[in-house]
Amino acid sequence: MAEPSIASVAPVGSTAEPAVLAAEGLRKAYGAVVAVDGISFHVRRGEIVGLLGPNGAGKTTTINMVLGVLAPDAGRIAVEGLDLATRRADVLERINFAAVYSPLPGNLTVAQNLRVFGMIYGVPRLAERIEELLAEYDLARFRNTKSGVLSSGEQTRLSLAKAMINRPRLLLLDEPTASLDPAAARDMRERIRRFATGGTGGALWTSHNMNEVVEVCDRVLFLSRGRILLEGDPRALPAEHGKANLEELFITVAREPLSLGEGQA
Amino acid sequence: MSLVRPGRVAAVVLRHFYLIRGSLSRVFPLFVWVGIDMVLWGFISRYLAAAGGFRFSLVTALLGAVLLWDFQARVMQGVTMAFFEDVWSRNFLNVFASPLRLSEYLGGLVLSSIATSAVGLAVMLVVAVAAFGLSYAAYGLLLAAFLLVLFLFGIALGVVGAAVVLRLGPAAEWFIWPIPAVLSPFACVFYPLATLPEWMRPAARVLPASYVFEGMRAIVAGTAVPAGGLLVGAALAAADVLLACWLFRGVHRYAVRTGLIARYAAESVS
Asked: Which domains does chain A have, with CATH numbers?
């Protein structure tokens, strides 16, 4: 599959706006185990890209590399044209993330957490921004509640509020709805959709809920054994591969990746 | 662009201020243990002084030594405790996937430690002076020099402790708590360096604290403080801070290369 390189997304010297995220030739191995094997992809402004694949496919490794907490063995990551390896702090100012396995400190209150992370991200007019987020994420009544005693749904809303505090250009969401009930998950999806349609940034989203992916994502990347096996519109991709829906395609990727052309990659 | 943004450093300090303000279990240790140490050693000093036969002030020698040593230990613990709060709350991903630079993070830990150890120092001074008549006039301006050397060495130990825990995992905190006790025989807190057997002396000479306590004993004995020794102690302490920061940076790079930070939720990653 032809994958766009950083150069093709933002040619050097061109006036074209660079992709929000451009990853080129990312590779990461743990000893003999290759977790991510030379993948390239991009996320454009206003776009939600789903990063899909079975457990161990390399999704979280990819996200950790984009977050700068895991150094790739090879490859390059750029956010709005800034190289993560050389402009780490500048890049991370433009990014934020929410992940179910990375809750905010439970011994701080909701407002304290937002204040501390707002200061870390250098948010201007922080007090005003915190009030906006408390209202938008229905957290105002928990303002002085320790984050650790919130329900999982409330904690997820707080994580997302923190993820939005710096108005990120790139939002990374690692299974953000995994612990949510259906109503809370729908609210979450609507918020992320609003973020993308706002046109200020793009999002990279991992999920195991294929209905959710169809509803939210503009484009999906199927990872298998560290490689991008398929890429396309989640609503069209199943039919292109003779499957009834995205879940069926996912199961095929997980069980029989070779039947979808992994061997040709 | 500046290397350190004060707002980010302040965010790290603010986090620890929020934690301490909202928790009696974090406030008490700031002054209770040092207060108990002062009372205990104050009575021991008073008892030994009453027994007689000493040519110097036991209160100044013993209680002063305990105060200075406790101060250094509090500085070290101030840094490690601030770091451990991020370990215990599994906050590493939030911290290290943010624009916070290592210099800003460590700067925040150090400032947090200054605040907490200043509380302990103030309590020790009040108890030692008010209850046991410890006279700081005896030390004169050198007290500031002593405190500075011990402060720097405490910072270095704290940063090393944080690096060890970052590298070996949360369970390694049990290696960190005994560090002051392990170093104390070599630091010559209560006896001259010459008391040590030959094989222990080289280790004592590389510890900045040993020069402070040698200087303190010179004051108590009424002899001249070896200025060269104190300068060596200060230089060693400053070098230790740089070495500790270099070590932390190296461990952080290792953690980013191996994925340690991303996987840090496990109790032990070694």
From this structure: 6-94+168-264 (3.40.50.300), 103-167 (no CATH)
